[in-house]
Amino acid sequence: MPRRGRHRTRLPLRLLAAVAALLVGGTAVVLGGTALAKGSGGGSIISSLSGKSSSDDSSSDDKGGDGKNGKDSSDGKDSSDGKDSGSSGSKDSGSSGSKDGSGSEDGSGSKDGSGGKGSSGEDGKKVKDGKNGDNTPDEAKKTDDQKKKDEKNKAEGKKDDPFPGRDKIKAASGKDFVDIANVAPNGNRGEGGDFSGGSYTVACGVSDHNNSDNYMAAPGKRNGAQHVHDYVGNTSTNANSTDDSLDAADTSCANGDKSTFFWPVLRDLNGQGPDVGQDGGSSDGNVGSILKPVKADLTFHGHGSTPVEDLPTHLMIITGNAKAKVQDGKNANAKYTCSGFENRVTDKYPICPAGHQLKRILDFPSCWDGQNLESKDQRSHMAFPDGNGNCQNDFKPVPALRVTLTYNQPAGKAFSIDSFPDNQHDPSTDHSDFESLAPPKQAAAGGECIRGNRNCTNVSG
To answer: What pTM did the predictor assign?
Structure first.
């Protein structure tokens, strides 16, 4: 909410008395019907023969005299510039949200800036009232580091770099790879993956389209991800996606589910990509030919001892952290393995033996707060279950999505996933985003499969 400033004293008392005397004595000279006088606080006032007094302007709602609430009269312009005085100098004072959050995929941004997708509906649950707010950065959402950077840039007269980190572009390190034979069975498994009960699988193909956007973390921002995503499901997903546009789009899913699923592409570093010299491609340090998965398995599982609830429409969930390298591993949840070695899971790029395929495992949190379809940090409305698959803190179990991507792996260490430039293709930055757009009847049919301990494919409502 805009900060309310102090009401300014607009005119010294002696000057007021003098003006009054001149008017009463009939000696005032009227020029153009308006007299302009400067106030003691550095502001301005317009006294008009029409009878409008200085108290009619919006100065009582300015931002502490920062000049944002109308123009200072010292420039010869009317401070009452026609804007509503109730706006506190802001074009949309009712919204402090940020359209592009922080412009990153680390979950620090929110599409509506409100901490949820909207106000409570009649059923007590949050409902969305539009995803895209204004383009004004929301200071409340910025990290301390970002605020310090902004202050430094302001002091130096610099503007924010729309695509930061390009000075730190670097290939993955040799230490980012491990021979799968050297990974202990049941190695680092990360969060999630403790399943029970039934499941249902949605067949949506392996790769429908690519772009370097992320409408969840950076809505409306072209190249908001600074790396290329593979999409399946909804065929329209891009930076400008909204619930309405996604609902109206087509899908690559066999059962008509319009949900969107996306993750960073894997590249063969010996090849040449289609985006040389382009944003998201080599301009952001992402080089090599894009590898399509030979299989993309999208399966929702049961977990824990409490029956799962059906996935609510427009629920957004993310897993992993695209900035894990520069954020000391915070929220990282990368899992890799090789076919035939599924009991050996690592957070490094695995070197698979000849005849075996590389696998990426993306496990999503599956405990929902029961209220919000999203949150400011894109995380706090969801949580991972405990080691037994149960939800804590009154969160409700919903189907646990696991995405398993299988690839024909290039020989040696000539492969890596796309990343932000300063995250240098670290394997720990693997991540995925999902928004449920399955109609309620379809989601209910999937829920019934899990609750009935059945394993279903391409359920429909």
So the answer is: 0.71
